[in-house]
Amino acid sequence: MTNRNPHLFYLLESIEVSRQAREAGNTPFGAILVNAEGEIVLKQGNVEITESNCTGHAERTLMEAASKRYSKDELWRFTLYTTAEPCAMCAGSIYWGNVGTVVYGISEKRLAQLTGDDEQNPTLDLPCRIVFAQGRKAIQVFGPFPEVEEAAVAVHEGYWT
Fold it and tell me: Sheet harboring 30-34: ordered strands across?
C-alpha cells in the first residue's frame, strides 16, 4: 500500500485503536480526531456496551470528549477518522458536535456483512451521507477506502457470531 493519500495514515491509526478496543474486551471499532494542523488530538475505541449503556460507540464517545475540549469553530476545521462508516447515532453526534470532515475505512454495508445477525450490532442501512444531508451543514465525507479494507476487516475476524 502506498501512502500517497494522506487519509490512509490516519485511517490505519484508527484501525490500530480498534485493535486496542478489541484487546480490551470491547467491540472492534476506533476513531481519531485530527486538528487543522494534522495532529491527532483524541483517540477513542468502543467502550463497553451493556444493557444500561448502549451508546459506547467510538465516534459518539470521542465527540462527547471533543465537545468538552474544543469550540464548535475549532471542531469545524477538524477531521474525524473512523474504521467503519458512522452509524446514525454517531453521525448525529458528529453533526451536533460540528466536525466538518469525516473519513471512514469500510462502509456500513460492509460492516453488516461482517456482523451478520449479531445482536451487538443491529446496524441500520442508513449511510452517514444521508444523515448529514438532512442537516444544515456541509459536512464533507470521504470513504470507503479499499486500500484499508483488509486491515479494517482483519480486526473483526472471529469476533462476531
Answer: 40-45, 30-34, 79-84, 101-106, 140-142
What is the per-residue pLDDT across 36-72, written as a single tens digit (0 to 9) for each? 999 999 999 988 765 666 778 999 999 999 999 999 9
- Residues classed as catalytic: 59
Handedness of CA 145, 148, 152, 157 (dihedral sign): positive
Among 112, 88, 80, residue whose Cα is nearest residue 11: 80
- DSSP structure class, residue 144: -
Q: Shortest CA distance to 112 belongs to which of 53, 54, 156? A: 156
Can you spell out the DSSP letters for 12-71? HHHHHHHHHHHHTTS-S-EEEEE-TTS-EEEEEE----BTTB----HHHHHHHHHHHHS-
Average pLDDT over residues 144-161: 94
